[in-house]
Design goal:
single chain; alpha/beta; Glutaredoxin; five-stranded mixed β-sheet; 5 strands; 43% helix; 19% strand; globular
Length: 143
Amino acid sequence: MPYPEEMISWMRAELADNGINELKTADSVEKFLGDKQGVAMVVVNSVCGCAAGAARPGILKALQNAVKPDKVGTVFAGNDTDAVAAVRGKMPQVPPSSPSVYIFKNGEPVSYVPRHVFEGGNPDSVARKLIGEFEKVCAGQTA
């Protein structure tokens, strides 16, 4: 059973209010990733403390970097069930984890940042990790 929307709405808003696309259905995930041009990042958001304390603020901090994905979307674990499954299905070799970050280049999965990066972390350590991934994947791009 999904989390009640009133319980998670502020957690969604933390990313959505900062320009991150909400992907609530499998179809919206497929459309978002279907472009096959450039770099796309999808955040699997979560209700856990590491999402609130490290993941969401660290992701927002990393997205202030000059080198970053062309577009960013988010799905919510425990709520957007089909959307989360669609994202995870793009990289079936990695175990399900939330929060987590998937990065795609030209439609192909190229990077995955699992929950353990966020657990015990802080916004600065998360931002550094993601910026490192952006610099590897987004070579030659500037926002």
